[in-house]
Structure formats: structure tokens, C-alpha cells
Amino acid sequence: MSAEDFSILLLTLRVAAVSTLLILPLGIGAAWLLSRWKGRGKVSVETFLSLPLVLPPTAVGLVLLEMLRRSGPVGRLLDRAGVEILFTWKAVVLATAVMSFPLLVRPARAALEEVDPRLIAIGRSLGRGGLDVFARVTLPLAWRGILAGTLLAFSRAFGEFGATILVAGNIPGRTQTLALAIFHRTQIGRDASAFRLVALTVVVAFAAVWTTEILQRRRSRRTGP
Amino acid sequence: MIELDFRLPLAPFTLNVSARLEGSSVAVLGPSGSGKTSLLEVIAGLRRGAVGRVALGGQVFLDSESGKFLRPEERRIGYVPQDSLLFPHLDAAENVRFGLKRGASEKTFAEAVSILEITSLLSRYPATLSGGERQRVALARAVATEPRLLLLDEPLAAVDVELKERILPYLLRVRDEKKIPFLYVTHNAGEAGVLAREALLLQEGRVRAIGRVEEVLRPAALSSADPDASFENVFAGMLEPIEPAGSTAYLRISDESRLLVPGPIGVVAGGRAAFGVSPDDVLVSTKALERSSVSARNVSPGEVIGLEPLGADTLARIFAEGVEWRANLTAAAVADLELSIGKRVWIAVKTHAFRRLR
Questions:
Q1: Are the CB atoms for A104 and A26 separated by under 8 Å?
Q2: SS3 of residue B254 by DSSP
Q3: N or C: which end of chain B has fewer CB within 10 A?
Q4: If you measure CA to CA, which chain B residue comes closest to A141?
Q5: Angstroms from A109 CA to nearest CA on chain B
Q6: Average pLDDT of A174-182?
Q7: Neighbour order of strands in the sheet with B283-285
């Protein structure tokens, strides 16, 4: 592995980690709300949140690009605040976060739905507040599902391409992740070095998905501690 | 004092409860689906949607008029559901400690553990505990929070008779030693008679009867309201061992009366105990019975004070040995014996028909 390969791997791991950490509280919050929401509109909200799973990544990227450009609704505000996002590593984080969000929410919601609401009620009756019960009962009982979702989201962020290239470009050393570098190297005929990056991607992705599978199996088997 | 005056729409009917409960121990009876659990959940604050007023000892939990709703964690109510609902990811000790306030003394924990005798269970997880053990841990968990009121939702329904006999004493210790008042949901009139001083009878969401336990638990009223109700005879008193080996003992239930009951080994003279005997095990005779002519050791003259239909049978209420007995008789037996209120009869109960409750 060359120094350049290592630097690309490091950048990719960093943006995938930041993106995952960014969506973690939001994703758990959304999953919890969806798991408790019984009213109308739930299916519509779930469908909307799942759209990045089925839309072409480039379509999501284009929407983000329109929102973030200086004349766009979000870009105007960011410009006023002096924050620059487009074509920086922050854009990579944002694109990967949007694309991986549903992969965190869906398993986390399923895990939270499995927590018996009466256990939560008992926790409240024992004098613990809602947040305290969430931290001490709900999260520990749902952690495997949440962790599985987190690893899936990380894997998605790690390999994201379509949305990233539209909002962050393909700038070596700044926004070029493994997926973008593989594309770039095959375009310029550096197939051998592209395959080195493919191998790196496979190792990281395999480890993440394998861990997810193991955790899911344990969750379904669990009856005790 | 518990003040209840609320309405809660449920699927088949509206739970409509208006009651003032004074006692330290209240039995809540009624058929399955009559709203008993919902009543407890409204008091605990676990069920939203109730309209009206709920207060305990002057503290208002719910007042729809002023829009007040005290959150469950602020009510200091200990709730023990039928299936224990221990936290599966915590061992018994962590379950009991769950509700302890920050800075709570170790004494609070130790006391709950000691009363419920769960020291040996503390390191075990709920999945490895038996039904009775889980109930004791759940009780300890609720007691350790030093609640102002305990809500017990059929805590003995899921356990067998033997375990029931073991858990009842713990409930009595919680009531008598910790001085924690409770509402106790049960179908068993005998249990209610031992544990409760007041009773509330619910039917299809409405209060059918409320008052002193012996008034509400009258068989005719209870059996028509709650088909699942049982009418065990329950007697409490002082034990007087009569054999060193402890195979039998006297249970003194008044200055004049005592019953011969099984004497568990280790009975201490003067110790309090309660025994139950099924109405099916009380034999009734219109001819004088002598101890020398029957094997039953408890033989007494008495008087029929009530004959109440109980399904196809009749529950005869007989006053003997200074207390009321209930005997379950077939219609044919009532006809053949020509039983009527005021008639003199004899009752006979075998020593081994008594089972110890505490």
C-alpha cells in the first residue's frame, strides 16, 4: 500500500466515522420517535426517510448541490455565516450522512420496537425520568440493533460515490475517498492500483457487514443476559 | 386516603371509578377485563387519557380541570405487574437498585432484600429465576423505592399454590413492617380477606361495591360480579404447638375457639399464622357429630346464617367457633339436608384440609 493509498484510506475512514457519529443521535432519535409513533403520517415519514436507499445517489447529490449552492435555500444561510461546505471534506460528510441515514434508522427502529413498552412504564414508575429510563432500559435492550444499524451506515458512508462526487467533487487529498479514487484510477488506466484500493474496500466492508450479521443473530437468540 | 373520580374510555366500555379509599390495604376484585389493571395504571400515571381527578393523601396526581398530570416518576408509586416485568438485562441486585434514589442508604436496599429473602438471588438474571423468585425480586424492587403506595396486579396469579403460600407472608411483612399501603388485585376472596381491610369490586368498568372487605366479599355479590372469584375460608391466629415433632398444632382464633391444623416443624408457640381451607372441604351435617365418631379433628356445632347460590351449587354460610365458615354444597345436598337460615348444623374439617398461608 502506497503512502497515497494510505492517505486516501485515512480520509475515507475519517469522513465515514464523522458522518456516522453525526447521524447517530439524529438516527436514534428518529428511530425512537418512529417506534413509538402510532398516529397518521407515520408511513409517509418512514418512506421519505428511506428515499436515499432507493433513489439514484446522483439524484440525491443533485438535490444537495442545489440546496447548498450560494443561491440555494441552505447555501444562502451558510454563506452569511461564513461556512463553506461545497467541494470540501464537509460536503463528503454531508453526502455520506444523508445516504447512510436510513440504514441506521431502519434496524434501530426495529430494535427499539422490540423493547416492551411496559418495561419503560415500570422504569418510570420506579422514579426514573424519561431520559434516564431510555439510557438505562431502552438503549441497553436495543443496543445490538442500534450497533448493527451504525455499522451498516458506516459501511454505506465508506463506499458512497454518486452523491459525494456531485457535492464534493474528486479533489485528491481533500475530497477524494476510496470510491472516488477507484473511479479516477480506472478512468486514467491505473487499473492495478485501483484494484489495491478495491482490496482495501473489501476488507473494511467485510469486517463491518460480518460484525453486523453476528450482532443481529445474537439479538434474535437472546433470552437472557 | 386515595381519592378516585375519573373516566377512562376503554375498548369495550368506559372505566368510570368514583371512590374514596381510606384503608392501608385494599383488595380490588372483578372479572377479567373489568378494568382492574387500567385502574392501577391510571393511579400509577402509566395510562394517559383519563379525565377526572386522582389524589393520594392530598397530593393531586391528576386533575383534568386544572390540567394537572403528575408524571409517573414523581408519584412514588410502586407497581408490581402480574408478570413481574424485571429488566432482563440487569441481575436481581441491579433490578432492586434501579429505583433507589441517588444517595439512598444501603439500608433501604438491604431492608428490601431482607424482607423478601432474596439475598441468594441477587447475582442471578431474571431468565434464570422461577416465577415466585421473580415476583419476590419485583416486590423488593418496588419496596426499595419506599413508595407511598404499592399497586399489586395479581402478583400471585402466575404462581402455583405452593409458591403462593410462600409469597403471601412477604406481602404481609411489607404491609405490617414497612407500613406501605397497597391496592391488591386478586380473584381470590380468601387472599383478599387475609391481606386487605377494604375491598373494591369492579364490573364492566364500574364500581359495583366498595367498603370493608367482609362486606364486599359476600359470596352472592362477588360471585355474580366475578365468575372467577374463589371463596376460601381463611383463619388467622396464634399457634400453639401440641406435639414436639410438630405434626399438628392448635391455631387459636379467639379466646374460646381453636382449630387443629397441620403443625410445620419449627412452629414457635405464640407465633402468628394464617390458614386457608377450601369451601369444598367443609363437611356439613344436620345430625350431631362427635370427634369420637368421625376422623375429622375439627368438629363444631353451628348455625346456618346464609345460603347463597354459587353457579349450580350453593354456598352455605355457617357461624361456628365464633367465626363464619363457607361450605360449598350441591343443590341435592341442600335439599336433602333441608337447610334453611337459622338451622342448627355441625361442621367437620380434617386437619390436613388446612393449608398454611403465613
A1: no
A2: coil
A3: N
A4: B89
A5: 19
A6: 94
A7: B283-285, B344-349, B298-310, B313-320, B323-329
Please indicate whether, in this complex, the C-beta atoms of B89 and A119 are within 8 angstroms of each other.
Answer: no
Structural contact between residues B235 and B275, judged by C-beta atoms closer than 8 angstroms:
yes
Residues B249 and B352 in one domain: yes
Closest in B79, B89, B142 to A225, CB measured: B89
Q: How many domains does chain B have?
A: 2
CA distance B205 to chain A (A): 22
**A53 at B interface, C-beta within 8 A:** no
Residue B178's identity, in one-letter code, is K
Name the helix (H) or strand (E) containing A50: helix A42-54
Whether A55 shows a pLDDT value over 90: the answer reads yes
Across the strands, what pairs with B15? B8
Which has the higher per-residue pLDDT, B156 or B255?
B255
Distance CA A161, CA B32 (A): 59
Averaged pLDDT score across all residues of chain B: 84
CATH pick for A3-221 out of 1.10.10.10, 1.10.3720.10, 3.30.420.10, 3.40.190.10: 1.10.3720.10
Respond yes or no on whether ipTM tops 0.85: no
Question: Regarding beta strands B248-252 and B182-185, do their DSSP bridges make them parallel or antiparallel, or are they unpaired?
Answer: unpaired
Average pLDDT estimate for A183-210 = 91
If one counts every other C-beta atom within 10 angstroms of the C-beta of residue A87, the result is 16
pLDDT score of B248: 84
Is residue A162 scored above 90 in pLDDT? Answer: yes
d(CA B40, CA B60): 16
For the entire predicted model, the pTM comes to 0.71
User: Picking from B100-114, B194-208, B210-224, which range would have the lowest pLDDT averaged per residue?
Assistant: B210-224
- Owner of C-alpha cell 387500567: B38
Phi then psi dihedrals of residue B75, to 5 deg = -90, -20
Distance CA B160, CA B256 (A): 34
CATH code of the domain covering residue B71? 3.40.50.300
